[in-house]
Specification:
Length: 201
Amino acid sequence: MADTAQPRRKLKRGGYNSTVETKTKAKIYPIVLYGDPVLEKPAETVTVFDEELRTLLDDMFESMYSAHGVGLAAPQIGIAKRIAVVDCSFKERPEERMVLINPVIVKQEGKQTSGEGCLSLPVFRENVTRANRVTVRAQDGYGKEFETTGEGLTARAFLHETDHLHGKLFISHVSALKRDIIRRKIKKLAKAGEWKYEPPE
Ligand code: NI
């Protein structure tokens, strides 16, 4: 999920499709854009919790920070596995740095409406109504099961990232008219060579 506290950023040519070099050991993955089929298929359950997975988790956090995101799901870096990372504090509060493996939403309460964006749909932001308090059950990088409840932006991130793992994007929560406008804009960007894919039909 894109950082809602940040102003809308302009899409730079190739900026979201290229691999970024980093000084740390972390691998910064390029973010997959809307139109890539990996974003619209259900991800696979994680069954192996090893060092390789934990390295991937570190890389996902760094890739998310590098893209100015507060949530990132593995399909967004081209990996069709049920893995997401969330940090709505954007490095400010360590307790908000969360790994969600095989997450399941177990409870939703209340309602909130606010602007939502996605790293796979940069420059687009729409109001989305979601539950305001959400409990998710998931596993950590060692396979340990836990349950956690988030409110506001965190609740929104739980739902947004879990949606990704079902092959669902936030634009499925906006009106058909708004979705169509977004798709037409992406078609134009694709024609201009500024978006890698044609929007799926
Ligand atoms: Ni997203």
